[in-house]
Structures are given as structure tokens and as C-alpha cells.
Amino acid sequence: MIKLIAVDMDGTLLNDNHLYNKEKFLALFKTMQQKNIKFVAASGSQYQRLRHKFSEVADQIGYISQNGAIVHNASDMMQIAEITEDQVHQILDLIAKIFPKDFVLNELVSGLVGTYVNQSIDPLGFKFVKQYFRPVFKVPSLAKISAATVGDNFTKVSVSFAQGVNLDEVTEKIRQNLPEQLKVENSGFNTDLIGSGIANKRSGIKVFQKLFNISDDEVVAFGDNENDLSMLTMNANSYAMKNSAEKIKKAAGHVTKWDNNHDGVLKTIEEII
């Protein structure tokens, strides 16, 4: 008996053009509703972007955003794992200290309201950021950003690295230097997300399990990257995408027959339900 399906977005449900087969999804969603299966979008990006992607059913699904830092059931916020203003600056200072400038393409600070970038960000970098976050606001300097100035609760710092930089190596270097209360997760696209050590996609799923009385073995999860491992390893019902790295495939219970560019998630859900 399946009662909840949690799905990562980029590289999983979404194809390489950041789209999905909406007609097929909506047909499957009707079947999920009939079977009392809760659908949850679980992503490293923001709640506002996720709602936009599921605009037709936005108030009928759940959202785990920013890798579990924020959890919504429809429009109701259920949980937030904040990081302090001091921690934001601690992270930014650490990145500047341990990496050469040419290693880092973009730095972002995300919160409940939006995502913030340096005013000096180049147009291509700004376009890239807006593919994964919304709304995005430019500020004079992230080095001087304050919660009071922007009127937000901070949750994540994202760091995008230049092409050619080994993401596994830089992620490990960050991990070795972070305070224990913070955590870094590789979210793909040469980007690391750094936030509260207590928040991940698995902790987000737990919110819905408690709310709807769902056991671990009644959950199906789909993902393709390191930031999905917490939910891909929770039971044998998990699916790594065919386009995932081998270490992700080995961690999951199953591997989809189709990749993200061929409706891999939706075809698998269709088989399941």
C-alpha cells in the first residue's frame, strides 16, 4: 500500500529543459487522489518555484523545498529550519577563505521570501539562478546582507562552482570545515547547498508521515543526486533515476527504466499505481 510519493525535480521529474509531461502528470494525479496517495515535490529549489511548476494543483500537493529546510502542505507552512545571519556570513567567509575566486561562479542566500544575489552578478549567471529559484532579488553585497534589511528568514547558502571544478572534492572540503550544526549537500549542476544540519528531504517527508499517519514502507521516493540520498535510503521502495550517478543508483532500492528526458518518473508511477 503506497500512501505518499515524493519526487525530486531537476534531473528527476524535469527534463533537461526544466519541463515535464504535464498532461500525463495531471492524469496520474487524478488516480493518486482516488487512491489517497499524497504527492510531494521535494527539491533543493524554492517553494515559490515549485508552486509555479504545479500551478494546476498547487493547493492539493505537498512541498519540501530547499532540501528540507522548508515544508509546506499546500499553502500552509509546516516547518522551517533557519540559519542565523551570523551563520550566513560564516559560510560566505569560509568559501572565500578555502577556494580561489575563479572556482566560484555564483553565491546565493535563500530564505522563506526569496533568494538574494550580488548586484554585480553577470547576466548569464543571473539567468542560470532564475532557472532554479524564484523570486530572485539583487542586493548591493551578500557580504553585508542582513535579515532585517531584506525582511526574510534565512535557510540556505548556495554556491555554484565553475566548470571543470571537481564537485565531490570541493563538497568534501566544505564538509571538513563546516561547524557541526551546518551541513552541505551536492544538489547537482555544480552547486552545493549549505544549511541547517537537521534539515534534509527525509526530515521533510517525516512531517507528512506524522500529518497523515504514513509508515516508512508506504512511501515511494524518486531522486537523482546526493541531496536525495536521505529519502532514497529510507526504504526499499525508492527509485534512483536511470540518469543518476552510479553511487546514487547503488543507494536506492530500484533504478527507473527510463531517464528524466523520457518521463522516467511518470512512467514508473504509472506502473506502481
Keywords:
273 residues; alpha/beta; Rossmann fold; Hypothetical Protein, Haloacid Dehalogenase-like Hydrolase, Chain: A, domain 2; eight-stranded mixed beta sheet; six-stranded mixed beta sheet; 10 helices; 33% helix; globular
Could you give the topology of this structure?
Layout: E1 4-7, H1 22-34, E2 38-42, H2 47-53, E3 62-65, E4 70-73, E5 76-80, H3 85-98, E6 104-111, E7 115-118, H4 123-132, E8 136-139, H5 147-150, E9 154-161, H6 167-177, E10 182-186, E11 191-196, H7 201-212, E12 219-223, H8 229-232, E13 239-240, H9 246-251, E14 254-255, H10 264-272
Parallel strand pairs: 1-2, 1-12, 2-3, 7-8, 12-13, 13-14
Antiparallel strand pairs: 3-4, 4-5, 6-7, 6-9, 9-11, 10-11
Can you describe what's shown?
Strand 4 and strand 5 form a beta hairpin. Strands 5-4-3-2-1-12-13-14 form an 8-stranded mixed β-sheet, sandwiched between helices. It has a 6-stranded mixed β-sheet with strand order 8-7-6-9-11-10, with helices on both faces. With 273 residues, it is α/β, with parallel strands linked by helices. The chain is globular, with a radius of gyration of 18 Å. It starts with a strand and ends with a helix. The model has no long low-confidence stretch (mean pLDDT 96). It folds into 2 domains: 4-80 and 199-272, Rossmann fold (3-Layer(aba) Sandwich), CATH 3.40.50.1000; 85-196, Hypothetical Protein, Haloacid Dehalogenase-like Hydrolase, Chain: A, domain 2 (2-Layer Sandwich), CATH 3.30.1240.10. It has helices spanning 22-34, 47-53, 85-98, 123-132, 147-150, 167-177, 201-212, 229-232, 246-251, 264-272; strands spanning 4-7, 38-42, 62-65, 70-73, 76-80, 104-111, 115-118, 136-139, 154-161, 182-186, 191-196, 219-223, 239-240, 254-255.
